Each structure stands twice: as structure tokens, then as C-alpha cells.
Amino acid sequence: MRFYENFLYLAVFLGAIMEVCKICHGPLATSSTVCLTSKGSKTINAASEERGQDILCIPGDVVHTDCRKFLTDKRRILVAKRRIANCYSDTSEPPKLRSHSSFDFRDHCLFCGFPARINERKRENDAFSVRTFEFQKTIGKICEERNDSWSREVKGRLGVINDLHAADALYHQTCSFNFRTRKNIPSTFSPTPAKQKKECTSGRPVELIQQKAFMKITDYLEANDDEQITIVDLVKKMEEFCEIPYSVVYMKQKLRQKYDKDIVFTDVNGKLDVVTFCYTAKSILHDFYMQQKKDPESDKFALITAASKIIRSDIKCMSISKQSYPSPTEVGSMNFHTNFLPLSLKIFLDSIFIEKNPNLKIAAIGQAMIQAARPRVIISPLQISLGVVLHQHFASRFLIDTLHNLGFCTSYSEIKKFQSSAAVVQGNSLQVDVGEESCLQFVADNVDHNACTIDGLNTFHGMGIMAAITPVVKKDFQVPRRDVSKEEVLNIGTIDVSLYQQKTKTKKIPFAKLTILEAKNKFWELDFMSSIIWPLRYPKPAWSGFLQMFNSGTFPGQSSSVFFPMIDLDPSNMSCIYTTLKFVCREASRYNKTPVITFDQPLYWKALLTRNERESDLNRIVIRLGGFHLQMSFLGAIGHNMGGSGLQELLECVYAPNAVVHMLSGKAVLRAVRGHFLVESTLYALILSEIYGIQIPNEENGGGKNPNDESRELQPDDTDLDMENHSAENSSDCNLAQKDSGDADEDLSGRDDSFHMWHPDLQIICAMYDDMCNENLSADEACKNDVFKGIKDKMSGFMRDLPSNRTATLWFEYLNMVSLLHTFIKAERTGDWFLHLQTVKKCCHI
Question: Where are the chain's structural domains?
């Protein structure tokens, strides 16, 4: 502890050698010095104010002993007060302007009131005549902005007459320039005599009013340190306390004299000379030493206070721009968020958290502390990102304001400003780079807003348009932060409406016979295996999960969506549809893409009519009925075709009766797809049971049974082969899938008796399924086996043997329709355009 005190004394002594006296500004090493306490600094500040000087000291400053005695001497203070009183005595009233006596617009200057004449050949005293009426309006606005004694004098003259040009008013050019630039009356035309200015003692007089105004400015600066305040702002603020403020240069000089190294002038966000306090580590440690000297028992709290001051000083020295919001790449980078913190704050938080990887929490809490320290200067990336995400998911102002008050999120007003700024940057067109190999597709549908108001007013029903780009296009650009007016949003958030005029009478659109499409359904064998594997291996995954388990490879990737402005018209209006088609064609032509747009069924039909009647630029557009609406219509066709067949009662065993009604009509799409796939698996199980004689799984029996082995039933534990017991048979099963069915009995000698008694085709299917689950067999190798074609041919033969049974024929047709539903969903999800066309052609029976 003694060593630490000696170290601090040495630091103070070395600092005293390099510093200057706060009173005389001379080097401290030239004479004896004294370190001021709180009482000593207050005494010096009071004496300086009585003398009319601007000396300001704080506890810990070092000054000369002689300078301190000279400044606080009471007799010298009285002498200084008398000198100031004599210099600023108010015994005589200041002379008035000449305009107070008699003023004529034709003979006197409008601004100073002195005579101003214009000779025919030569201008006298730089005089001009008022030539326009706009001159009077401009001077009136400047009078409102200046609001001082000179402006009030000029404003009174303007109120006497309505037209300065008609009155032949004159003015001096120098007076006009000084008045416009917020300066005083030129000395040539100043009403104050020159002798009166020299009555004071030699040297620059001490302006008491300016000095008091400057002290108020320093108090304002210290109280609003969390704002970006420039020297110009301080000069304007000083005008509120005195009529003649300091100039920008002199204000900067006075601040340097008062705060010395504790203040920094920087250029931030395009603003010049931004004032920032920056307490050095030396001054902070000095305060820590003084506090410890006063109260030795408060070491812990003094140390915490010193550390907090150092961290806050580093936060103030951060070079951060508030002109733009962070880009998406920066927001998604953890290194950016951690590097955003000052090193001192990062070290402090690292020493608190004990997790293995606390980088995200450190970045979040650190940025929250930075935002709380300087709320009006800094925008923390994590806080603005969290606010935008919360607003998109919940649209709750209460939630965002609550988190903002707790310090975890940015304010709701800042989020709205970000959205308006981003909307201006986005505009009403695509602002992304769409590559040549990218797929661009537009989607348009009706949009409703405030549709459930109590009075039915303030609702919106219009056309919304968006673009889907595959693969995803990253929009990595910064959004400039700016104040956006409502007019700007309205200008960029509109699409020009084109009036639709019907040229010819509406004609029926003929359906031409489609050409024969030969699209290959890849991996149809996996679809077939998914349908027939249930009675052989129980339980089994659903169809989507089955394909996802065994299908792998590259794919185009995730799609990105871009939203466009809405069209404020009824979507069913022909002008709205015509405007939408023209807008899509224009946007697609910018990227040399074929315009493709998707509608729902009512809009799809009207769009077809509009395209066939308009000019050639709309004939190139491809209008699609959305895959969801196609699927919904086909599900409705299946339900209508199976009406009265018992399908409804069968589905009611799983779903509620009210839900089944919507499933058969095609409205409940997800439930309908799931229900039809369950029924399909049940029908295939019945067919396999009839063809191969296997037992169907039920509540008491989880697996299949060979008809030749009545004593043993295949339980669920038997179907799900254990990985350890089956590992030795994987290689033989893989080879078995490639052999002829006649050799299957020899290769399956290692399995249980019931499996051995199954038909060889079913044994091969089970072996391939097990190997694929264990990743010993790929989907490509499995699909090359001819066993799928053999089983399918046997099922087709079984179906042909029952031509006279109408019920069986209906259910066989139902299986074909569900198979088309399989293919349609696969074509949509894999982006196989030709398979999509072929499936739609089969669904329409064209």
C-alpha cells in the first residue's frame, strides 16, 4: 500500500512538471506549487468571478502559490471591482440612432439610418436602391431570426410601409451584408462615438454579460454531454443569454482554456467541431487518489468509480457514424458486434461472464450499456436489429417501448424512421442484382388492411405484388438515416395506374390440345416404396419425411422475396389487373427475364382475358395459376368424385366431421393431403394382403405375418431391426437387393422364420429399406432394382382382374388421383417445370 501511495505521488509530480498553472498559464516547474482541494478551487473560482475573469479550477488542479495569493487578495479584488464599475458606468444614456429623430426612406439607409444617396455617375457610400418586393420579405424573415435590438429597429421601419420599391428605399451594401450575416452595424455607420469606446483602460475589457453567458454555456455543455453538440450550436445557444455572443473561433479558444485536455473537438457524422469530453486516465487516477486520501476506508467504491469513468471515457471517444444504419452483413457478423465494444468495456464484461461462449451476451449487454451512456449519439446495431425483428413479428408498440425503457431495445420512433428510410431506398422497383441463371417470378394477390373495423371505415382492399428470386439474393447495402416526410413515402410508394379499355368483345378462350409431354418422374420408386412399406415395416415415416430421408444432392437454394408498392384499386378491377401486368413486364424487362406471374383462380381468369385483348408487349407474359390453388382445386375434384363412396365416413374415423367436409371440398389443404395419403397407404396394404397374403397391422398386431406360419406374428420389435444385431447382415442385404428374386431364399437364411416365409419381392423391398435407413444403400442404387416394376405389374394385373366390380374400379381410380397428387407436390417442391406441366395435363384429363 505504501508503494502504491508513493507511485501516485510520483505521477502527480511528473504531471506537475509537464502542466501549466491554471491562473497565469506559466510552467509549474518555475515556482512553488500547491494542489487545490474542493474548498481551494471554489475560492479561486469566486475570486475570478468577482474580478471579471474566466479562470475556473477543479479539485486536483496544481497552481502557483504566489498566483493563488495574488488572485484571492481582497484588496486587489476591490480595486478590480472599481475599475469594472468605472468602465461600465450607466451614468449617461447611450445615443440613439439617427432614425429616432427623423427617417426618410429616400435619404437614409434602411438598416443603419445614416444618409445614403446615389449619384447619377457615381455611387456614394456604397448605396443601392430596393428593386424587388422579395427583398422586403427576406429582410422580414431575417428580423424574426435575429430578434435583437438592430432587427427590431429595422422591423419597425418595415412596418411603416408596404412596398419598399415604391417608396424608393435605399440601403448601404455593407449594412445589408452585416445584417444578413448576423453581424453588428458597421463601424462607419455605428451611432456609438469613437471616443466613448476608448474611455476604458487599456487592454481588452471584461464583458460581464458575455462571461456569465459563457458560464451558462459550460453548464449546458456538461449537462448535455450525451448529445452531438458543435461549436456553432454553442454560439447559437449563447445568443439566448446575450445579444453579442462569442465567435466560433473565440468560443473554441475559451473552451480550450477552461477544460484544457479534458475536451476534444472532432468531426462526426458530417458535423464540424463536435465537442466531446474526454477525461484522461491520468486525471481519473488523480481523482481516485484524492478520494482515497479523504476516506481510506472507501477503496473498493473509489476503485469502481474510477473504472466506470475510464469505461465511460472510452465510450465517448468511439468513432461512430449515425448517418446510416448497419448493413445486413454487419448485423449478421458476431465479430462486428464484439468489435463494436471498446476494449475496456469488453475486458470488464469478459471478467464477469463464466460461460464457455458468452460473446453474444457480452455484445448485447455491452451495446445496451453504450446506448444508455450516449442515447442520442449512438445507435447500437443489436438493439436496432432486435427492434425491427420484434416489430415484424408482433407489430406491438407496447412491447417495443417496454423493452426500450428497460434498455434492451431501440425506441419505436427509431424503428419507424428506419422503415421509412428503407422504403425510400427501396423505391418502387427491384434494387437487387438478378443474375442470368436466377429465376424471377412475380406473385400478385388481394391485400386487406383494417378489414374488421367497427364502423367499416379506414379499410384498405387493394392489389399487392411481390417478386420471388431463386436462389436467394442478399441485399447488402446500408440504409441512410434521414427524416422522411409523408410526401416522399407517398411518391415512391405508388404505381401509376393504367386505364383498361376493352377493345373487342370478350371471347371464350379456347383450350388447344396440348402436345404430348414426356417428363421423367425421378425416383418414382421411392414414392412407390413409401406407399407399400407400411405393412412390411411398422411404423414408417410420412411421405414427405420418407423422401427427405433418402433424397440428397444440390438444390438451387432458398428464395428471397421483394415487396412492391400496393395498387389502391379493387383487385378484381380490370384496370388494376392491367396495371399489374404492365408493371411486371417492365420490371422483368430490366433484367432480360421472361415475365412470369402467379394469380389465384378469379384473378387468373381475368388476367388471361386482359392479356389476349391487349398489345403485343403483354402477350409474352406467362400467367400461372398458383400451385396452392391448383392443388386445392384438384383436392376438391377428388372429394367430389368420391362422394357417397364411404371416403367421408373413413376420414371421420381420424378427423372431426366438420373438418372432413372442408377436406373433401379442398379448403383444408394440409389436412386433406394428410388424410388422402393415409387412405392410400391403407388401400395398398389391402392389395398387398390379397396378392402376397401378408397380415395387415392393427392395434394388437404391429407387423406382417406369413400365412404359412400361423404360430408366430410379427411384432413391432421384430419389424424395427436392432442396429447392433443387423450390422453383420448389412453387406448381404445390399448384395441381395441386386440379385434375382429366385436366389433370395439362399441369401435370407440368417433372418427369422416369418421373414424367410415371405415372398422374395417383399424380402428384397424390406432389405433395401433397412439398408437405406442404415445409409448402406443410396437411393440411386435402390431405384435401379427391377423389383419395384415387378410388384407394380402384379398390382396392375390384380386391378385388371376386377373390371366388373364398380366399387373396386372407383377406388383404383382414387389411387391414381392420389398418385397424381404425389407427383404434383414433388414437381412444385423440386421446381421440375416439365413434370409440373405433365401432371397438370393429366389432372385436367386433356
Answer: 1-87, 98-191, 435-518+559-625, 634-699+802-816, 726-801
